[in-house]
Design brief:
The protein has nine helices and 20 strands. The protein has 362 residues and is of the alpha+beta class. The protein is elongated, with a radius of gyration of 25 Å. The model has no long low-confidence stretch (mean pLDDT 89).
Length: 362
């Protein structure tokens, strides 16, 4: 395993800056996800780490050794591709053994390593099959096995679950997490799926247009997003945003949006009292409380109910402001009903309207 350091990495394709001055410190043995929408530069970053793309500027280090100009074979990194990249004319055994064969590993050692990896991944009964005789999940496990068998210091994974159906995605990501914990190998994982990132990662690097937006633990990324983009990208359903003007009266604050005034409570006053620029307030659906019999709360009108297993998503309109709330399944609500709407005061997020940056009390 290795510590990976990225210093001011920039990658250009002619006039397009795919990665813009990216710096990251990835601790030894950690699982770090590069997360963002298509075109944000996450896969390009991974290929620069692997050596498949040359950096325009900046440096990459493995355990303090500069690898920026080394060829891929000299970097001791194993890459798992999105499309499996298995040799169709070889069976599972030979696909797994290929890297060892190229290194002229003795046959006895190769057999031992293949058997070990096949056992870990549950491939023992599939060793004589060819890729076209395997399911998508089985092929993905063979692709993982080809990376594992190399015993590399860094695992690089480029959206390895995107071609799998929902159940296989769940099972395979569980397998990946278990393997990484057992092996302790430094792993850099690329995905656009924020749920995968939250479940798998020790730390998440959120990217947008080649620029790092936030690098922190899953919990901090969710509970204290650095800006409005991160707040809207992380979480499903997405965070509600209310664009309005701040009012302050007797130490308490409210957001006025259109003809609706939404109290934010005294706690928000400590954060917003010094902020004199236009702002946006954010609140996650699970932090909105709806009561079927409003007593003094702000009042809203239920527009739509969407039952999803243990929870129901509720579209409610608070004056001119549309909101989505998450309530327990079976809640006593129906379309057209007037309900009380209250926000958990310590769960409010505030962002500068122009820059999108988080407004913090610190």
């Amino acid at each position: 395993m290795a510590r990976v350091t990225i210093e001011h990495l920039t990658k250009r394709f002619r006039d397009v800056k795919a990665v813009d001055d990216l710096s990251l410190e990835i601790p030894e043995g950690s699982f770090v996800t590069l997360l963002g929408p298509s075109g944000c530069g996450k896969s390009t970053t991974l290929y620069c780490i692997a050596g498949l793309e040359d950096a325009t500027s900046g440096d990459i280090y493995f355990d303090g050794t500069r690898v920026t100009e080394l060829s891929p074979k000299d970097r001791d990194a194993a890459l798992v591709f999105q499309d499996y990249a298995l040799y169709p004319h070889m069976n599972v055994h030979d696909n797994l053994a290929f890297a060892l064969k190229m290194r002229k590993t003795p046959k006895s050692e190769t057999k031992k390593r293949v058997d070990q990896v096949a056992s870990v991944l549950g491939l023992e009964r599939l060793l004589q099959r060819r890729p076209n005789q395997l399911s998508g999940g089985q092929r993905q496990r063979v692709a993982l096995g080809r990376a594992l068998i190399r015993d590399a210091s860094v695992f690089l994974m480029d959206e390895p679950l995107s071609n799998l159906d929902a159940l296989l995605r769940f099972n395979t990501r569980t397998e990946i997490k278990r393997l990484q914990r057992e092996l302790g190998t430094t792993t850099i994982f690329v995905t656009h799926d924020q749920e995968e990132a939250m479940v798998l990662s020790d730390r998440i690097a959120v990217m947008r247009d080649g620029v790092l937006q936030q690098y922190s633990t899953p919990d901090e990324t969710y509970s204290r997003p650095a800006n409005r983009f991160v707040a809207g990208f992380i979480g499903s359903p997405r965070m509600n945003f209310i664009d309005g003007d701040l009012t302050v009266e007797e130490g308490s604050t409210a957001i006025r949006s259109g003809g609706t005034e939404i109290p934010t409570g005294p706690q928000a006053a400590q954060v917003l009292g010094r902020h004199d620029r236009p702002l946006v307030m954010g609140i996650r659906p699970e932090h909105i409380r709806l009561t079927p019999h409003p007593n003094g709360d702000a009042r809203g009108r239920v527009e739509l109910l969407e039952p999803v297993g243990p929870v129901t998503y509720v579209d409610v309109r608070l004056g001119d402001v549309p909101l989505r709330a998450s309530v327990p399944a079976g809640a006593d609500l129906e379309p057209g009903q007037t309900v009380g709407v209250a926000f958990e005061p310590d769960r409010l997020h505030f962002f500068d309207r122009e820059s999108g940056a988080r407004i913090s009390e610190h």
